[in-house]
Amino acid sequence: MGWYGRGPGQGERTSLLAYGQPLAFAARGERHCLGIRRAGRRTPCPTERTVPGRAGNAQCPECAGLDRSFSVAADTNAGDPRTYRVYLAWFGAGLVKVGITAEERGSVRLLEQGAVAWAWLGRGPLMATRRTEELLRAALGVPDRIAYARKRSVRGEAAPGPERAAEVAALHARATALEGWPESLERLECEVTDHAGAFGLDALPAPARVITEMVPGGVVAGRLVGAAGPDLHFADGLVVDTRLLAGWELVAPGEGDAAEVPVAGIPGSGRDIAAAQDGLF
What we know:
This protein is α+β, with helices and mostly antiparallel strands. It has helices at residues 61-68, 108-113, 126-140, 148-154, 161-176, 196-199, and strands spanning 2-4, 12-14, 22-28, 36-38, 41-43, 83-92, 95-102, 117-125, 186-187, 193-194, 209-211, 219-228, 231-234, 238-241, 249-251, 263-265. The strands form four sheets. The chain has a seven-stranded mixed sheet with strand order 15-3-12-13-14-11-16. Strands 6, 7, 8, 9 and 10 form a five-stranded antiparallel sheet that branches. Strand 1 and strand 2 form a beta hairpin.
């Protein structure tokens, strides 16, 4: 988890979390905009505006708009000269998406999204990978975005490793056999990577409930057993979406920290997901 201080001279630091360790924290004050982070540097929000507790993005509208003005995902940075890669990401049986990421980031984007298994499809210039993403989305019938609540709802029911690898490999073969790929895009051989070990899926209890927002004085405590994408999984089935922690001052729980943190049940696979918990990630 990354932290930063608002005061003069306070920089950023990182806390490493280990599976099996107890974890407890309380929220203090109000939730504030994180500002803008670009090229490894953070620019604080000039007004330090407050942000709603249920918002998945801890930014005010102005800072979020500035971020999107330099966003590949929002197609506002088409001139990016870096090499990009196209990938297939598997989250559960029949739940697969296609996407792109900068080659220099390696597998970070797949870890961020909570992809249980994945494979590269091709590499090349940004716009060539974007056109390929659209081709595959239409031809294979797979989306380029999946609501995060859907990923969470099937995580405890992941098929065995060989089955998910076979599903990714079969889609990879269909994708690379398609005509219409841009000439500037290099097709890549299928090598399926599995994140079950990194996420701690083998010891993961069935996700039962998820925090829907932090509140002042709210306390979260438990034993950490897994982490996938932005989600921290506790031994009792509680899931903490760390996107909802961003912008809060988090401290060790003390006297007076006893506010109830709102939670919601996690629907089973195949059920409708409450719109209030949907978030494209």
